């Protein structure tokens, strides 16, 4: 099958790039240009015509990438045309007339590249992360993974597991030839070392995932304290409705922000209060859940929120900043409870002390985003596989210690497989769909 898709962004643009990959690429080039193949990998000016009636669609640049030294490993071509919807539609429509050609699915070019051994799964994911990166720190992380340090580390650990496995298998195959005791000792210490190294990668405070997905901040507080006003201020647009009517915000409203290059997902929630309204009560439940899962909570109160001590105790255990809003109305509470919190007094109305609040948020973020590691876990998928690997290694150690080598070997194989799933050195058909579906079309 030959696939094609617009690989540049949709909408008006100076130039749009339509990419083609597959065995019929040569045919598409010759039928659209009515000329032979241009020199490989050299930008060549050509006229592009409709296959059916020779009508000139556009004039642009053609680049021909013969397989296997192309992105996907197959024959590929790029048609650089003027970035108009009509031009791109006409190019797509005429390519579709060639037998065995269809529009690419999301991520399909990269999926083929993986299947043809051009890239591993981690690299494929990092390409997707690079495309969707919005902040500098996200771009840097994607590039770090793309350069392959994480893959190298996981492959190295896997090789070491395979080495242990070969020793255990030798033990099974030649039970009477006792293996030298140094080898058996090595098996134990090596397994322990590998487990420790994996544990170290797992104990990363989820930096990689936070960078990829954004640091989660929940704004919670009593009704009318100014939570939605704060969300709007920080995101510099009217994301949420602000009103003096208590109970205005019911759903969770999220905004993705870039605070000095750090990605943040800020959620505004329903004000916490006793409510008879069914929908509002649901919103309050969601608010509490958001707070529970947040990396940082901004508790917003106002001078009139007299009874906030009980409220505060709800969130006491979580990392939070107490934001006392509307200080333009005066604030004279002397409350011991407040002392326990990192507190900032602001007025959104008068734009007072908001810089202090942002500084405080940044201070919290910066500590969480610092990692000197080159090996990152960026997805739950990696974490789950590493955890499974450790679990299998624990089982292996138990069985190995009672010399049940057959079963121990099986646990070791499972551990190796879990590790292999991360980079993609095993049969990974089952996980391919879920990974490449996150891509955009044309990648
Ligand atoms: N005086 C004063 N009013 C504010 C301030 N911030 C927000 N408000 C008002 O307080 C009301 C409730 O705000 P809103 O953001 O909807 O509160 P929420 O229910 O916590 O989301 C609105 O009428 C806002 O205009 C402030 O700093 N000072
Ligand atoms: Mg609100």
Low-pLDDT segments: none
N-to-C series of helices and strands: EEHEEEHEHHHHHHEHEEHEHEHEHHHH
Strand content: 15-25%
What would you call the shape?
Answer: flat
The helix count comes to: 16
Mean pLDDT: 88
Number of strands: 12
Helix content: 40-55%
Describe the structure.
The two termini are 16 Å apart. By secondary structure, the chain is an alpha/beta fold. The strands form 2 sheets. It has a 6-stranded mixed beta sheet. It is 47% helix and 17% strand. The mean pLDDT is 88. α12 links the parallel β11 (320-324) and β12 (342-345). α4 (121-132) runs antiparallel to α5. It is built from 16 helices and 12 strands. It folds into 3 domains: 2-104, Probable tRNA modification gtpase trme, domain 1 (Gyrase A, domain 2), CATH 3.30.1360.120; 124-204 and 377-436, Four Helix Bundle (Hemerythrin (Met), subunit A), CATH 1.20.120; 211-369, P-loop containing nucleotide triphosphate hydrolases (Rossmann fold, 3-Layer(aba) Sandwich). Bound molecules: guanosine-5'-diphosphate and magnesium ion (MG). Residues 223-229, 242-244, 248-249, 271, 325-326, 328-329, 347-349 line the site of guanosine-5'-diphosphate.
Key descriptive features of the protein:
single chain; 443 residues; alpha/beta; Gyrase A, domain 2; Four Helix Bundle (Hemerythrin (Met), subunit A); Rossmann fold; 3 domains; six-stranded mixed beta sheet; flat; binds guanosine-5'-diphosphate; binds magnesium ion
Care to give the gist of this entry?
The chain has helices at 25-33, 85-95, 108-115, 121-132, 136-146, 149-173, 181-202, 207-213, 227-235, 278-293, 308-315, 336-339, 354-369, 380-401, 405-423, 429-436, and strands at residues 2-6, 13-21, 44-49, 56-65, 76-83, 101-103, 215-220, 253-259, 262-268, 296-301, 320-324, 342-345. It has 443 residues and is an alpha/beta fold.
């Amino acid at each position: 099958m030959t696939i094609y898709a617009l690989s540049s962004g949709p909408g008006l643009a100076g130039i749009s790039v339509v990419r083609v990959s597959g065995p019929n690429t040569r045919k598409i080039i010759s039928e659209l240009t009515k000329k032979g193949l241009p020199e490989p990998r050299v930008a060549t000016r050509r006229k592009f015509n409709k296959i059916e009636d020779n009508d000139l669609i556009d004039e642009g640049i053609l680049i021909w990438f013969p397989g296997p030294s192309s992105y996907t490993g197959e024959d590929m071509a790029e048609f650089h045309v003027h970035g108009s919807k009509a031009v791109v539609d006409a190019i797509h429509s005429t390519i579709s007339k060639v037998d065995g050609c269809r529009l690419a699915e999301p991520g399909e070019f990269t999926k083929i590249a993986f299947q043809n051994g051009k890239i591993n799964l981690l690299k494929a994911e990092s390409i997707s992360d690079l495309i969707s990166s919005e902040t500098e720190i996200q771009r840097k992380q994607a590039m770090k993974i793309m350069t392959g340090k994480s893959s190298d580390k996981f492959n190295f650990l896997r090789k070491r597991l395979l080495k242990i496995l070969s020793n255990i298998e030798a033990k099974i195959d030649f039970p009477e030839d006792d293996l030298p005791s140094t080898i058996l000792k090595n098996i134990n210490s090596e397994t322990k070392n590998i487990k420790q190294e994996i544990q170290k990668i797992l104990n990363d405070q989820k930096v990689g995932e936070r960078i990829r997905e954004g640091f989660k901040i929940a704004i919670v507080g009593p009704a009318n304290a100014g939570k939605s006003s704060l969300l709007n201020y920080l995101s510099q647009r009217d994301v949420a409705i602000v009103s003096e009517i208590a109970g205005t915000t019911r759903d969770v409203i999220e905004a993705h922000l870039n605070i000095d290059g750090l990605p943040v997902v800020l959620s505004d929630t329903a004000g916490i209060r006793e409510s008879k309204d069914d929908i509002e009560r649901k919103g309050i439940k969601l608010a509490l859940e958001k707070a529970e899962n947040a990396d940082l909570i901004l508790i917003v109160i106002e001078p009139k929120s007299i009874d906030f001590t009980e409220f505060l105790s709800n969130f006491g255990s979580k990392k939070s900043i107490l934001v006392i809003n509307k200080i333009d109305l005066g604030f004279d509470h002397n409350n011991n409870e407040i002392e326990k919190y990192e507190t900032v007094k602001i007025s959104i109305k008068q734009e007072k002390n908001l810089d202090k609040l942002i500084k405080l948020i940044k201070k919290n973020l910066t500590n969480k985003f610092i990692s000197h590691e080159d090996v990152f876990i960026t997805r739950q998928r990696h974490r789950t596989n590493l955890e499974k690997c450790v679990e299998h290694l624990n089982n292996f150690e138990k069985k190995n210690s009672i010399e049940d080598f057959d079963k121990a070997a099986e646990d070791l194989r499972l551990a190796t497989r879990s590790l292999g799933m991360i980079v993609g050195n095993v049969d990974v058909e089952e996980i391919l769909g879920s990974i490449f579906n996150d891509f955009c079309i044309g990648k």
